Structures are given as C-alpha cells and as structure tokens.
Amino acid sequence: MSQPRRTRRRRVWTALTLPALLCVLAACSGGPGDDAAAPAPSASPTPAGPPGTLFDNFHYSGPEDPALAAHGWEVRTGGGGPGIKGTWSTAGAGFPSDPTAQGGRVLRLQSSTDGTEQGTQQVEVQGTGKNLFTGTFAARVHFSDKPTSGRNGDHVVQTFFPISPSDSSDDYSELDFEYLPNGGWGSEGPRLDNVSWHKADPPDRVSHTLKQRIEGWHTLMVTAVGGTVTYSMDGKELFTSSGKYVPREKMDIHFSNWFIDLPFAGAPRTWEMKVNWVYYKADEAVSQADVQKTVDGFYSAGTNYVNTVPKA
After folding, report:
1. pTM of the model
2. How many CB atoms lie under 10 A from the CB of residue 135?
3. Is residue 269 within 8 Å of residue 112, measured between CB atoms?
4. How many CA atoms lie within 13 A of 293 on its CB side?
5. With 80 as the cut, is the pLDDT of residue 15 above it?
6. Number of C-beta neighbours around residue 15 at 10 A
7. What is the per-residue pLDDT across 247-270, written as a single tens digit (0 to 9) for each?
C-alpha cells in the first residue's frame, strides 16, 4: 500500500490558444493511424476537441521539448518523497518509437539503481494544470515484472494517479494505481494496489489489492462521479470507494516509476514503465469501450494532443 507523499512540486502552466475543430472527433473510430517516425510537435497551437477533454499520446522529442511544458507537463526534479529522496531526474524520461504501442510512440519512464542512493535515479512525469476534478481518468500503461537489465528483486513501484497539487491541502485528494511486481513494505508481490486517499498526513485511505502478475499493456481507468470512485483495468472493475474517499479538489495526473527502498547493492539494473496515451473527460463516467473509440478517433485524425478542459 502506498506511503504518504512528501513532495514539494513546482507548478508551471503555459496557456495555449486552441483553434476550434468540430467535435465530431468524439465519434470517430478506427485503428492506429499515426506514423511512428513522425517528428515531435512544436509548441504551436493544436486542434481543439470535444468539450471537457484532455488527450495526449506523448509525441515529444524529449524532456526539454517546449511543447511538453506548453501542453501542461513537466518531468520532476529535486527532492522529496516517496522512495529514495533527492533522486528524481529527467534522465529517465523519453519518448521513443515502440512497435507495440498504438500509433507507435510512447512515454518511457526508466528508473535505475545499483542499490546505493548516489547510484539511483527515479522518474516522474506530472501535470501542471491543477484543473482535473470529477469525471473519467484513463491511460494505456505497460508494466514490467523484471528489469530491462540487471538482477531482479528491487521493490519498484510503477504508478498512474491523479493527485492534489499540495500534500498539505485540507481537501487532499489522490486516486492510485500502483503496481509492485516484487512487493514492498513487508508484503510479497506481485500486487496491484488501488488506493483512495482522504488525507496524506496522517494517512487516511482505503485500498484494494489484486495479487497477480500483470506485465504488459493495460487500459487503466478511474471514474469519479456521483460520490463514487471506481477503478477498472481492461474494462473489469477492481475496486470502488465512496464517502470521504472521493476527490474533494482539482488534481493533476502523474506517472512515476520509483523505488521503495534499496534492498541490495550490486550491478546496475534498470526498470521500465511505458505510457501509450492518457485521456480525461470532465464530469462524466465514460465506458472503456467509449474511451477507446474516442482515442481511436484522435489517432485516425492524426491528433496528438487535445485540451478543452476549463483552466483552474
């Protein structure tokens, strides 16, 4: 189960002027139509889409691509938890071609360690808009059960989660998908934890654990509508929370790949998590089939990024 987050997060937002485009994009369907070799976009304006919609398939050249910040993302640096403090780095974030991904491109998060603090790098890509509240959050994510190189056994956590901009907020909100292939905090893996938070400090949360290996691509979804939060994977419901364990303020989406601790020293090993695309629809519970239909429509139209969610 996730530990409380102890983080000071730098927030930036660059507003874009988005020209209008017919909302017919929401009804489009079709297979992946993007060119994996297509160049990364610049920070120029991009088409609008259906109202209250965020979509990104991460066609960027790297962490310093101006379009990444312009589209409301940043790669975390500096100190703070969770995991091995002071080891957050942009080095592990990339946007390579990937033949297993829809459209052929991904956000890749690579964390590495040799079992020492100085030899550890963690990675997180986080939103900066502070404007996502109730509705449907979805992402196509690839989890790993073993490192791409080096010995297995690290207590690694691969995550997708909306979270409050401040851990100290009176209305703190966080909704987690956390995959621990080797377990952690004294528990055995593999395990997928879903956690709905009410407070970070002292911890106040409810959770559910799926104890099975899930290496590979999965569509992860959280719907938070009508006082109920529902977590699902590939269209199958996993867990619900309600009462005080629902969003109480606007959040940002984060993806991270980090280490709980350093159980052994030795040769370096690298852990990889990938994100194909991310989607958010404000104030509506959207089915997995309809999410995929809309995403397919964006790919068919050659649309890499849409944001029509009202600003915070």
Report:
1. 0.86
2. 22
3. yes
4. 9
5. no
6. 10
7. 999 999 999 999 999 999 999 999
